[in-house]
């Protein structure tokens, strides 16, 4: 990190005075910068999410929608917030079926032999 970046983030982003900036160690400075950037990211996400809601409701109110839809579907099409991305990234539980067990159950249910199968 160059001295220009330290001044840019210290004085600009964090709004520190000279004495506070010079008394901080590198770890504390970087931690504060990362926290501030994360906070700004969440603020921007909230603003964009609100803008998407306003736009979706305006689109619904204008009466120009050819298909019936709701504001939530329109909003998700306009902007995916951080919460939406977290929900999508959650692992979905998939159940693996044992095809041999299913095959045996069906053969028993219908009273068939394996020799009668096509495959």
List the helices and strands and how they pair.
Elements: H1 3-13, H2 18-23, H3 26-62, H4 71-78, H5 82-89, H6 99-110
Helix pairs in contact: 3-4
Short description:
The protein has 119 residues and is an all-alpha fold. It has 6 helices and no strands.
What features would you describe in this structure?
This is Phage protein. The chain is an all-alpha fold. It is built from six helices and no strands. Helix 3 crosses helix 4. It is elongated, with a radius of gyration of 28 Å.
**Estimated helix fraction:** 55-70%
Mean pLDDT: 85
Order of helices and strands: HHHHHH
The share of residues in extended strands comes to under 5%
Number of helices: 6
List how many beta strands DSSP finds. 0
- Domains counted in the coordinates: how many? 1
The major beta sheet can be summarized as:
none
Shape: elongated
What is the SS-derived class?
mainly alpha
Question: Kindly, what is the distance between the CA atoms of the first and last residues, rounded to a whole number of angstroms?
Answer: 66 Å
Radius of gyration: 28 Å
List unreliable stretches of 5+ residues. Answer: none
Protein name: Phage protein
Organism: Bacillus atrophaeus (strain 1942)
């Amino acid at each position: 990190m160059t001295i220009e970046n330290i001044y840019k983030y210290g004085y600009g982003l964090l709004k520190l005075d000279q004495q506070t900036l010079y008394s901080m160690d590198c770890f504390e400075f970087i931690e504060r910068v990362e926290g501030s950037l994360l906070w700004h990211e969440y603020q921007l996400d909230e603003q964009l999410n609100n803008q998407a809601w306003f736009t979706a409701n305006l689109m619904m109110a204008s009466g120009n929608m050819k298909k019936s839809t709701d504001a939530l579907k329109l909003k998700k099409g306009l902007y995916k917030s951080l919460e939406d991305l977290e929900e999508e990234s959650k692992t979905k539980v998939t159940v693996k079926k044992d095809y041999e067990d299913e095959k045996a159950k069906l053969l028993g249910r219908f009273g068939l032999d394996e020799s009668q199968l096509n495959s």
